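FORM 7B: Structural annotation worksheet

SECTION A. Query
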Amino acid sequence: MPDSKNTNYILDIMPEDRLFTDAHPDDLVIVVMGMTGAGKSTFINRFCGVEELMKVNHGLRSCTKEIGVATLTLPSTHQVCPNRRLVLVDTPGFDDTKEGEYEILRRISIWLAAVYGKSNMQVKVAGLVYLHNIGQNRMGRSSLLGHDLFRRICGPAALRTVVMASTHWETLLHNPAAGPIRENDLKEFLTESLSQGAVYRRIDATDPVCDTRDAIDYILGKNVVATQVQEELVQLGKRVAETEAAQKLRETLESWL
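SECTION B. Predicted structure
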């Protein structure tokens, strides 16, 4: 358990939570987020070069129910972080078909707090990836909420380590003219995040493995930083329900009634 003096968040930990107990002080943690079906598990599998390291969803139901972790040591020839251990974190989407939005927020927040609050470690994040399915022809309210919660989990400082990436370009091969239109709409939607330091990348159908590696390498060139939710839970001693992300979630769900 974390030894930080501000450990109120421990009260939000459930027995079934899969916390990362093998954290190292110099770990490079990259959290991959996005809505259900955006390609989070596929993104991690491609980078690791293992097809089914993370179970991939090919249907309508959510596949990633718990936080999943893939660890690998970067090669000695890596230009930025040779021989460093990379931790890729697979997360459920906020539109999960099995769990509510608050439960997903709790799991992600607690996972991040637990590695940050661990005694003498304070593992921050190297960066975050947020994936958008370019095959979706509009931004529904769940997508808008998911992005809002992501921004509040990150906070302004961590946004400078964020890659916003579009996926599933293969779904537009039959209608290539739609791609640039949807991409422009997506960039417009992401304007605020991009203006605060996040960058946009395309995980194209032509060479998705190369695009995935480029996104990860971009993040590895940044300095590690604590996310807002890590600081709220560990430094400020908040419970998950008291975080800015949880407050935004409550306000949004009330507005839907």
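SECTION C. Observations
The first helix runs from residue 40 to 48. Residues 154 and 227 are 5 Å apart (CA to CA).

SECTION D. Sign-off
Analyst initials: ____
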